[in-house]
Specification:
The chain has 140 residues and is an alpha/beta fold. The chain has a domain of 73 residues: Nucleotidyltransferase, domain 5, CATH 3.30.420.270. The protein contains three helices and five strands. The protein is elongated, with a radius of gyration of 27 Å. The model has no long low-confidence stretch (mean pLDDT 77).
């Protein structure tokens, strides 16, 4: 009988990382595409002030006022143009559903204070007392 001496095969324990890199690149592309969509509201030029951060427990209701004085109610990703009377009616419905709602005003720096004051008065007449104004700091 002839015996052959077979070479012993050694196993190589390597992790193939190429599929993980592919998955990571796909996730990176998804986040790069979705991140601009997460910004809510309309584009306004915020006034610069020396402010502190406001503590917010829940997602606030954002009301935007553009440079021409038009009001927008930001619901999720969309901003609905509304009049001051509609703002009052819709905020009443929202306040009835959630009495702890916080309202944040985001107005352009060129808007007259009259427009902001009218919107604030409409919100306060409904009974909403947690009201804030969005500004940018001097460094921004």
């Amino acid at each position: 009988m002839i015996y052959r001496l077979a070479k012993k095969k050694t196993l190589k324990a390597e992790i193939n990382v190429v599929p993980y890199i592919d998955v990571m690149l796909v996730l990176l592309i998804i986040f790069m595409v979705l991140s601009p969509l997460l910004i809510q509201g309309i584009e306004v030029n915020l006034p610069k002030t020396d402010t502190t951060k406001m503590s917010v427990q829940n997602e606030p209701l954002v009301i935007s006022i553009d440079s021409s004085g038009k009001y927008y109610l930001n619901l999720g990703e969309e901003a609905l143009p509304i009049s001051i009377d509609e703002l009052k009616r819709k905020s009443m419905v929202i306040f009835d559903a959630n009495p702890d709602i916080e309202v944040v005003f985001q107005s352009d720096k060129d808007v007259t204070f009259d427009s902001v004051a009218k919107a604030m008065a409409a919100i306060q007449s409904v009974g909403i007392s947690k009201i804030g104004i969005v500004t940018t700091g001097y460094g921004n």
